[in-house]
Amino acid sequence: MSGKLEFGDFAPQYTRADTSKIVVVPVPFDGTSTYMKGADKGPEAILRASPNLEFYDIETDYEVFTEGIYTDSPVKRFVKPEPMIEAVRQRMAGHIKNGKFVVVLGGEHSVSVGVIQAQAGANKDLTVLQLDAHSDLRDEYDGSRYNHACVMARAKEICPIVQVGIRSMDAGEKKNMDKSRVFFAYNICDGQSREWIDKCVGLLAENVYITIDLDVFDPSTLPATGTPEPGGMGWYDVMALMKEVFRARNVVGLAVG
């Protein structure tokens, strides 16, 4: 990322590191992607586009930026996932200690491992809620236990997980999957019922960390991902789930990548 970019285009009193309640952490990492590259360009692209957004939210009748949104410097670029994960964990731990709600902008999905480590260290009774096209439950892939295809295998070693939107996986991942905590896309995207949302929320602990892989969305909504899969969730499907999770549980942070 070239130079220091900020999320949005807010007056200085809304972007101070000491008073902002929300911190955005860019993590430009694409070291383990196995199909289309470019995820490391995502954080910069989001930040550059963000000043063009309208920051008044119609549904909540609120301007979230008034809580303060500080954009941290990007985490250093790494080639291998292990040092990146440790750098992310350390960065996250500092912000969590200071009481910030941290939003991580990836980067491919392996960036979430360090975030989850830090959140689990700071929050007892934590569940990771994954929104993704892929189960990411391989124990190892392409010679690494920290490949993007292994993220949730590492996460479930740390705390319980719930998976939503899954529609692509290898048969070998079944042994690592608890199907009672998985909401497959073909079961939830028929548009007929939202009962699955209540079931999903009921599986979550009091504290929830949300990791969103953008390929959870149908490619007709968001095609520019590294591994697009047909048949995904729509915008309002995801928003319906998010509203209920935020209403019923304490969301401690989230990552998008």
Structure overview:
- By secondary structure, the protein is an alpha/beta fold.
- 26% of the residues lie in helices and 17% in strands.
- It has 7 helices and 8 strands.
- An 8-stranded parallel β-sheet has the order 2-1-3-8-7-4-5-6, sandwiched between helices.
- Helix 2 (81-97) runs parallel beside helix 3 (112-122).
- Strand neighbour order, sheet with most strands: 2-1-3-8-7-4-5-6
What Rg do the Cα atoms give?
A: 17 Å
The secondary-structure class comes to: alpha/beta
The total beta strand count reads 8
Largest sheet: 8 strands, parallel
Distance N terminus to C terminus?
16 Å
Order of helices and strands: EHEHEHEHEEHHEHE
Percentage of residues in DSSP E strands: 15-25%
List the total number of helices.
Answer: 7
Percent in helix:
25-40%
Gross morphology is globular
Mean pLDDT: 93
Low-pLDDT segments: none
What are its keywords?
eight-stranded parallel beta sheet, globular, 257 residues, 17% strand, alpha/beta
Brief summary:
The protein has 257 residues and is α/β, with parallel strands linked by helices. It has helices at 42-49, 81-97, 112-122, 151-155, 185-188, 195-202, 235-248, and strands spanning 22-27, 69-71, 101-106, 126-131, 161-166, 182-184, 207-212, 250-256.
Explain the layout of strands and helices:
Elements: E1 22-27, H1 42-49, E2 69-71, H2 81-97, E3 101-106, H3 112-122, E4 126-131, H4 151-155, E5 161-166, E6 182-184, H5 185-188, H6 195-202, E7 207-212, H7 235-248, E8 250-256
